[in-house]
Specification:
Blueprint: E1 2-11, E2 14-25, E3 30-34, H1 39-42, H2 44-54, E4 63-69, H3 81-88, H4 97-101, E5 103-105, E6 108-109, E7 115-116, H5 121-130, E8 135-139, H6 143-146, E9 153-157, H7 160-167, H8 175-181, H9 202-214, E10 218-221, H10 228-233, H11 244-257, E11 272-273, H12 281-285, E12 286-287, E13 292-293, H13 295-298, E14 303-307, H14 314-318, H15 321-326, E15 328-332, E16 337-341, E17 345-350, H16 368-375, H17 380-383, E18 388-391, H18 409-426, H19 443-446, H20 451-464, H21 468-484, H22 492-500, H23 503-508
Parallel strand pairs: 3-4, 5-8, 8-9, 10-17, 10-18, 11-14, 14-17
Antiparallel strand pairs: 1-2, 2-4, 6-7, 12-13, 15-16
The protein binds adenosine-5'-triphosphate and magnesium ion (MG).
Amino acid sequence: MLSIINSCNLSGIDGFIVNVEVDITRGMPCFNIVGLASTEVKEAKERVKSAIINSEFDFPTKRIVVNLSPADIKKEGSLLDLPMSIGLLRNYITRDIDYFRKTVFVGELSLDGTLKKIRGVLPIVLSAKEKGYKRIFIPYGNLLEASYVDGIEVIPVKNLRQCIGYINGKIDLNLGQIFSDIDKNTKEEEYEEDFSDVKGNYFVKRGLEIAAGGNHNTILIGPPGTGKTMMARRVRTILPDLDKEEKIEISKIYSIAGLIDNNIGIVNKRPFRSPHHSATTTSLIGGGVKSTPGEIVLAHRGILFLDELSEFNRKTLEMLRQPIEDGFINLSRLKYYIKYPCKTLIIAAMNPCPCGYFMSDTPCKCSAYEVIRYKNKISGPLLDRFDLFLPVDSIEHGEFSEDNFNESSASIKKRVQNAKDMQKNRFKDSDIKSNDEIKSSQINKYCKLDRESEQIAKKIFDKYKLSNRSYTKLLKTARTIADLESSEDINKNHILEAFSYRKGYYKYFK
Ligand SMILES: Nc1ncnc2c1ncn2[C@@H]1O[C@H](COP(=O)(O)OP(=O)(O)OP(=O)(O)O)[C@@H](O)[C@H]1O
Ligand SMILES: [Mg+2]
């Protein structure tokens, strides 16, 4: 007897349907799983057998072959336990074949037949819905996460017996009640820190507002204790609230990484990832045996903060060049490759030399060679990927008591939100979301300059010998400055202000 049960597996942040074909025939009792199954899928044999017996069903003592189709894509994880068991228990099920054609099953079984929470439920439920399936059975523990998807019937089950009982119409799970009882928390979480805590440093704060307004990668550079880390940590408090689409996009990544908060079920906060400078390449860009998403992917639609940039391994940093540029990362494996999105705002902070005081009011103790060696830890191509270079210096003593001038995050956020709204409207017919994503072919369309600003931009380009990338970054930054003022036109002041944020580059890196 052959049964075909639909299930799902993950490739990157998307699910793909797996047909679990269970064939039970006469012959020597055996249980074989074929179809490019990983070790944990193969181990399902033992879990499934015990779960069936401990749920008081008979395990077929026949020749069992399970084929996982498509056979050329590797299947991973323990979520195929449930569909395999359903195929093996076909004799106990009274539903016709049509029910199973429109149904997907996912779940890991424990030996007593209980269904355990799995990773990646959100992308799996979304994929099943997109592929036109009517219903999906998931472990009860994943209920909250799955409840954010509309348009597909989600059936959370606690154990194998309950699952079979529900399919046969013998058990009422009271789904209406279960879903109405869920307390969905979609409100953006509040932050403890605020920009009003930061005294003085107006130039840097304005630079960070522009960075947030158009997602421009930024380096903060200056002596120790001047507030670089403090300010970088506050950038997410001025980023606009996440929209529903962004929340789902981020939650899909966190669901795969197993980082979804059990009490909320969805990501309600812009990601802020701050890996330590001892981070390995794998932890930063992702990979490993399970091709898990790295820090740059976990920071998608949020901030990747690289504090003490010059202390990171140079080779590891170089790996970030392609993903920073493209907004996605491809992890190649033997038989397949995985694509993760990483549209991330990169904020980096560093000292200008080993002692930290080069070009500051405090005398620097380093030799010229030491300063050059320190700066060379960051390659030219990596620096070229930054839009704003903000020199951070100590503030004047009087600025500590000037509370009135320190704008709150809420007030800065309003301008950022306004700039983002303009960008949303501007890019509504394209696949980009913010100014930093403008492609070189679109520069003339979106960053049109009048004659005066064109001449100034040309002078800057000629005098400072900007790379093509730096020049387009200058125009994109000017575009954001204009957006923050609700201006459709870019004028010379916008260009000049945008150029002032390269000041730090000429001060410290030239
Ligand atoms: N502009 C400021 N306003 C108020 N407090 C500040 C300011 N700058 C620094 N501080 C205080 O100094 C502390 C240290 O600042 P922070 O850690 O951000 O320095 P840093 O520039 O990152 O130094 P390092 O180069 O050593 O990492 C902050 O926690 C804060 O208490
Ligand atoms: Mg610091």
